[in-house]
## 1
Amino acid sequence: MSCVRVATWNVNSVKQRVARLLPWLDQRQPDVVCLQETKLTDSAFTELLGGELAGRGYAMALHGEVQWNGVAILSRVGLDDVVTGVVGAPGFPLPEARAVAATCGGIRVHSLYVPNGRTPGSDHYAYKLDWLAALRDVLAAGPEVAIACGDLNIAPTDADVFDPDAYIGQTHVTPPERAALAELTALGMRDVVRDRWPDRRVFTYWDYRAGMFHKDLGMRIDLVLASGPVAERVRAAWVDRQARKGTGPSDHAPVIVDLDEAPDGDIGPVVPPPSAPAAKRGSTKLPQSS
DNA sequence: ATGTCATCCTCCGGATGA
């Protein structure tokens, strides 16, 4: 029985993360990968990883810039109708590389890097809220079979931060940010990890400083929001904490979601034809850590 | 601990972003 594995990962510089990203792809075998904070131009990304990814069967949709931001979608189940950016979104002051969308295996996939907001009340905070409003309009106008993945830079509830008191006066937890996120879920987009683990302490980001990961003092700000028809197909949804361990990790962990085949079979062939065999899920060059 | 890690450049130490 085939399924589609979708993942999202803020890699905090793909150039600095090659030694983690490629083994992770081989180990976890995602079919669709949304990346954020690639921090590379499209040409530099292609030069760095184009060959390695093509060799693993991935097509790429890239939207990067020289220094900051940058998003991508990797897919080995098709990659069509690529759109970069969010129509109507503001810049700061110029447009930033924070969104790319593509249709992969019959699903409209969005890789998102929402502005941080820096300080409540700041210009950047207003930018974050305006950007989210534009995103809402794009999702509202888009296909019904959709999944919006990425670093939303919002902790949906107080259960999504290690200590609500530690975040008083900080971004990521303020009512206007949570209201902006609620406008996305009001479109019918489900937070599939929280749906799966309603009572679990689950984070996706831990500050590099002060041993925050070791102490599990983090936040859940990397989300997978799935429209109803996709949410119904979710068979697994989890945070890959292994990828946050060891040498040279990102400060974010990947989120991985497995989807059952679409009931009417409209997702296309997810098993390549015999002429183009791909690695079987679970076969890995790396030891599978526990 | 203003704690770390990433980016850039009046370019190897400091400013900035997260």
## 2
Amino acid sequence: MDTNEPEDDPVKEAPVPRRRAQGLGRDIIIDACLKLAGGSDADALSFRKIGKAIGADPTALYRHFADKDELLLALADRVIAVGMEGYVPGPRWEESLRDLMLRTRASFLRYPQVATLAALRVTRQKGELEFIEAMLAALELAGFERREAALVYRACGDFMLAWTGFSAGLVLLGEQSAQDDNAWVRSYQDVSEQQYPLAVSSVALMAGVQDEENYRFALDLLLGGIAARLGN
Amino acid sequence: MDTNEPEDDPVKEAPVPRRRAQGLGRDIIIDACLKLAGGSDADALSFRKIGKAIGADPTALYRHFADKDELLLALADRVIAVGMEGYVPGPRWEESLRDLMLRTRASFLRYPQVATLAALRVTRQKGELEFIEAMLAALELAGFERREAALVYRACGDFMLAWTGFSAGLVLLGEQSAQDDNAWVRSYQDVSEQQYPLAVSSVALMAGVQDEENYRFALDLLLGGIAARLGN
DNA sequence: ACCTGAACACCGTTCAAGT
DNA sequence: ACCTGAACACCGTTCAAGT
């Protein structure tokens, strides 16, 4: 618990803002980073660029975070926490699960640099705790007992995180290197139709699927599988 | 180019291996890269390290690949192709889908550096074509018509690729930065049980789930959802 | 106590030069 | 025709030095 940890000392040593006029602090840095992220610059979160953004030497960051990894975890947790704002569990567990797995993804995709770098990490902080608690509550409502709920949570959580990291990578790739759908279709014009009849005849259909609708489609399949599992 | 070979050869200008004694060529480079990948070195695939491995200057690679991206796509396609070796479609479509989504993942995870860097790319080459053709054949066998099959293919393919990239990232993170399960459990000892009762009481269960079983569990949920979709 | 700035060991990539 | 090696513009990180 690195965020707002309750201090043991009774007197509560004051923050001593003496040198805090232009001083930093974790939250100021996190705010600046999230302002930097979101653009199309794939490595907007380098220490040198962050340093420029906060008007301090890049290495000043080491005064507040042990290393880049710790900074990224803090960013990821804040992104999750922001995504949880305004969440209210509904009466139907499927809707709650779906809501949680869409809103957290959406929040990450607003900061794709954070998503690519930290989506595979467990932050073990406030935002993640709220997300987990809400997911488990929905699964309990669905009728899963504890062990089963833990399994399903892991499947859903990692499904969402993995796919979101994947999507963020696509966003940051951008137009680069002919990743676009047209290039996919075009490159299949030289492919032997005898050898790969299904692939060739379906390439336009496959390429036409956008990532966001694809995620929602897969998510609904997954939720359908969970519901089916409850059935028996 | 005068060679030692008989001249004026009218038929099929020979490959002329004159300067090919230590010469390179794409396949030699790809073989060397796959030998380099697989270890625990997260950036084993830097141009400098590849250059050392093939006994050539790092920049010699630019003679055979336009840039690193093109090299990675070639590597990824080879990894997919290797994964497809020995695949035979079975009579049951669910089993074929499952097989394809396990063997391709397994092949990628043998070369985690390739998986993290290229799992989100469409290679548009031989290995990927074989994979797509086999997947679509299984879905046709299941009874999906073309448009539906394309949708389900995209969901399954990206599910597998996204999660595999995620898993490869975990592998390369390794023991680093306390990503391990024990750290997760330990860090929850300070968490308020009143505020997050479900999360705290389930952390050991959640942390105990290994990535590979988690993937298989989610995969079965997904396949279950696909089967349910066919039902109506 | 906090920040600076040079330095270190790395990246991918370019380009004039070698043979 | 193919390869080399210095150079460029970047990384994250360390550490002695400033105030």
## 3
Amino acid sequence: MAYSDQYIDKLRKSGLRPTKQRIKICEALFNAEKTFHFTIKELVKIIENQANIKVSLATVYNTVHAFMKKGYLKEIPLNASQSYYDTNVTHHHHFFDEEENKLIDIHQDDVDEINIKRTIPGKKIRSVEVIAKIVSDNQSQK
Amino acid sequence: MAYSDQYIDKLRKSGLRPTKQRIKICEALFNAEKTFHFTIKELVKIIENQANIKVSLATVYNTVHAFMKKGYLKEIPLNASQSYYDTNVTHHHHFFDEEENKLIDIHQDDVDEINIKRTIPGKKIRSVEVIAKIVSDNQSQK
DNA sequence: TAGTAGATTATATTTATTCTAAACTGTTGA
DNA sequence: TCAACAGTTTAGAATAAATATAATCTACTA
Ligand SMILES: [Mn+2]
Ligand SMILES: [Mn+2]
Ligand SMILES: [Zn+2]
Ligand SMILES: [Zn+2]
């Protein structure tokens, strides 16, 4: 299993023991062709579908938090009651489709440099993220 | 009470009955010199401090939602477990101080126009908001 | 001023997330 | 090789924000 080995390495290098559960979660998150956005509930479903082993909910939460701390996942702020996570950890922005409750990546290059002409004394900016909320365009019917 | 009258008007014009509770909540939200950000828990505290009448938690939630629907409040997306609300309903951006868990307004004029060179077919942009996360700057000691 | 739609309230419920503490397992070094 | 142990998993309990319920109350109007 080439993938497993790769994840075992990744986990070991991160100081995380490569357990069955964590390797399974790595496969669910990082085997995908493309990066994607997910909630914990959705991730649990993905794991169940690819299931040969069972992973408890607490472990899913623990692992997602551990991976965030290591920089393998990002949390996306949305005005929802549940957290959204992103396997794309590069600096980028989002459309949020309010009707379908779906996040769409906007590549950094697709947004002109954001220049904030204001500073807070003693503080520095750690990240700058844009969320553009989108809805159906019904004007374009004519 | 000039303020009360003003809020009674505002509520009536919005099709909301001007109840004692709603007027009280208007006073808590809109008497302030400056706009501000709050959580439900904080709003409940503000009301309690200015208290002459009691307002139940359910009514606070109901009223905040009603005011949002009318455009008197905005919800601010943060990766927190509770919703933040804003009495500043103009288009603006935010610093989020991750250490103090505090939002700071950035006036629209303090951010250069945000140009997104990408569209989603059949969708239009409803809003574009920037969140800049800030942390203590310890490099600047020298 | 009575009737009614709308509003408030205490309380129960829902649901995402975190905590607990017992059982289990990957790692290490003797 | 394997015992020991720190790290991990787990079921289930706890927490807390938010919403639902349904009985009571009240602002409005005719
Ligand atoms: Mn979290
Ligand atoms: Mn809400
Ligand atoms: Zn993304
Ligand atoms: Zn604001």
## 4
Amino acid sequence: MSQRSHDFTASLPLSDLFPEEIQQELFSQVGSQEINDLLVGEMPGNLMMVDGYGNEIYNHNELIHDENSLKTEDLDSKNDFMVQMARQLPPLPTNEVLSNEEYVGPHDFEVSVVPNHKSKYPWVYSGILNKVFMKMNQQFPVDFKLKNRPDRSLFIRITPQYSAHHNANEAVCRCIQHNHHNDPTNIGIDDNVKQHVIRCPSNKQAQYVGDSNQNQRLSIVFPLSTPQVGIENVRETFQFVCKSSCPAPGMQRRATEVIFTLEDELGRILGRKCLQVRVCSCPKRDKDKEETEAQKANNGTAPRGKKRKVEHPPPASSAKVLMPQPDASRFFQLNMQLFGKNCLVDIMNFAEKTYYYELGLHRGMPEEAALRDSLAKVQEVKKQLSQ
Amino acid sequence: MSQRSHDFTASLPLSDLFPEEIQQELFSQVGSQEINDLLVGEMPGNLMMVDGYGNEIYNHNELIHDENSLKTEDLDSKNDFMVQMARQLPPLPTNEVLSNEEYVGPHDFEVSVVPNHKSKYPWVYSGILNKVFMKMNQQFPVDFKLKNRPDRSLFIRITPQYSAHHNANEAVCRCIQHNHHNDPTNIGIDDNVKQHVIRCPSNKQAQYVGDSNQNQRLSIVFPLSTPQVGIENVRETFQFVCKSSCPAPGMQRRATEVIFTLEDELGRILGRKCLQVRVCSCPKRDKDKEETEAQKANNGTAPRGKKRKVEHPPPASSAKVLMPQPDASRFFQLNMQLFGKNCLVDIMNFAEKTYYYELGLHRGMPEEAALRDSLAKVQEVKKQLSQ
DNA sequence: CAACAAGTCG
DNA sequence: CGACTTGTTG
Ligand SMILES: [Zn+2]
Ligand SMILES: [Zn+2]
């Protein structure tokens, strides 16, 4: 981790990732199997990093439910029930990395950025990158579509997350400047809304969940409006109030995505879509450049040695499918001497995050056990290093 | 004035430049002569934009003396007297533009940036530009030299000011991010020091004067240490804690200078030196570029049509002397129709600032009367526009 | 939108 | 330190 002058909250130490008791529990285990069991079923405090209930279910800890973030707003009594439902969705803890795998689910959940064909570009969508480029504060419309809508209430959660796995666990939050109460973006804005990087001005029932002061991931949840007969399309407008390039503790030029999840009253996930996002001053220019670059990379143009490596977001869900990598399912034996305990500690911390991230992506899949095993190995080394 | 999203305090409306009563006094006058008199001698509240007591004297209004900025610090009783002296120097009001004319005075006041010959450049000085380039937070040493030192106490005041005349009246202050109490630059820093863009960590007796919340210009004053026999050289270390490129209300890439004044107990100016400053991430690169550019401009290379105009700082006090412009002392008759009241208002506001600035530079000189006349004309037009 | 300014990364 | 990124200006 570089120590740049502004980078004072850039990465969370492991001690922030877990409450203290849990950490001790985790690290006092010796065998990897015990750790596996712990992770799957018996983590103290009922907080679970990875669930054991199939591919599409989150388990939330009711005890860390955040009352502050769920202030009463002015509501129709008509909608009280749905809002009550929304309240029951607790904030996601920062350390839980959300899957960014696409999942259409039982209702054929679809999310699409409304294309923009005007000459002036407050925002642009690139299909090949699955990415929207927009200016800060500019509103952009998104359509949500689903089929076979059930009688019960459904919710849509919008969560920004860093695309790169090594910082996906860090909550996306606003920079100091734009979070300032005097900033023009914050006039008349509720205090718990202020800290959110993305807003949904079109939906007055939107709940702004989470509190970054408590190291919680920030997200928006709103109830899907009761469907008119035959209508299955809901349009909402979103707005980023920080740039991708905002300084720490802002996004700091890191690739960012928005994860849209369709959820039921219990937070069970019924669909997931993912959208890469860049908030910048020149959306058109930057889109063109990224597309050109992506094309170049596709055309097998060998990456020039000197060029600085761009932090590439995951290739997303476009036509371009990831080639199944043959080596992704193999074990590799490491035999090496490495100098410097501090280096080792850093490396192991990184490795641990990597496996947490991969686990998030491979829940319920055959490789999950192998990943857990590797995670345990890493944690064992960490434990030995700390003695 | 452009309306960029961050630019929420970029330029002060005229109403901020004067207390309300003074404004009304000013604008209710009709003849230009009366306004002249007002400015010279009888401004209500004893606040004077331009003094009438010769070239080198400031007149401060005791009534706006700021108690907050003069908190007691932990001091030797030895130095109590000198600190008392420093306290008697009231903060300069924001609207008063400081002269940036060099004046060696009766003590041959000299200020020099200690040259840096190391391979690594935390700061670099360009003689031809009379400008230091440095990184934020880096300390750079400055030598103060004077001859024939008197028995009484002397003080040095350090005031940052924008170099361009059209924003020289705006106080130089810190951006929101770096002024935040959690910013690494502010740990253990006294609250009234925090808002200052330039600090003097080497001198514990330095008083941080002024409060930008009250629209006062910020400066540092410290007593010149009692001279050792035969020694006439004092070295102090300074540090900028914002970059030249910091966003509003910071310096916003504007050219900035530091004005060093040698003052007696009553604030009478006994010497003045001026130093252009640029706080950036690549001091060496930027110095080289600016020097190249300056040389090019000197070589008569006609400015290329397409190139964006760079906001040039005044040529400073180097060998390169300003050619006396023949037209500087003539009147010009304007006869034109201009469209748009708002445009006119903007233009007149700008013209007014221009004349205030010029007056600051030409106090006591023959052209002063003509400048006052023009100022009055502009203010008359402004008054008519506001009816 | 092109040219530039200025921070960042390797 | 060079190459690159990304905000700003006209
Ligand atoms: Zn921001
Ligand atoms: Zn700053």
